Amino acid sequence: MFAEGDFISHGTNGVCRVAGFTQMDVPGTGEKKEYYILKPVYDSNATVYSPVESGDTLKCRRILTEAEAGKLIKAIPALTPIAAGERKELEEKCRQAIASGQCSEWVRVIKTLWEDRRSRMEQGKKLTAASERFLKQAEEKLYGELAVSLGQKKQEMESYICGVLEGAK
């Protein structure tokens, strides 16, 4: 269970701060269930309600600590891109990696799709719409979490990680 004030990674909303707790009715059961009140860090107007007791253990997790974030950044050059044969297989593996909620998997998606974009550009092609969407999702999630973990601005973290990734080629 998370405490009020904790920063967590929420599956669909990225980094959120636990603003509190509330009880809500479960439709059709007459029961009440406890929910986290989450405030997305990068959307100040939003409020998210997420069940405290959820069967989906990856939906919410604590964000990386400063030490864990530093360790991940140092490991970026060694993280391998996602291997896939066909385009559909690649896109499915990227979807799964993003859904895993794991920063290292997000890095792998970014490395994979940067490589794919570079290769397709050489052929005069663009990334597919699905690949562009997956790349954006992975970047938003990774840069957002690392920025909060390291006390940086998201844009600064994006520039820094882009430099690390470019250096890892």
Number of strands: 5
Supply the number of helical segments. Answer: 5
Shape: globular
Mean of the pLDDT scores?
A: 92
Helix content: 40-55%
What's the gist of this structure?
This protein has 169 residues and is an alpha+beta fold. The chain is 47% helix and 20% strand.
Structure, explained:
The structure is a single chain. The chain contains 5 helices and 5 strands. With 169 residues, the protein is α+β, with helices and mostly antiparallel strands. The chain has 2 domains: 7-62, Thrombin, subunit H (Beta Barrel); 66-167, CarD-like, C-terminal domain (Methane Monooxygenase Hydroxylase, Chain G, domain 1). Helix 3 (103-122) packs across helix 4. 27% of the residues are buried. The model has no long low-confidence stretch (mean pLDDT 92).
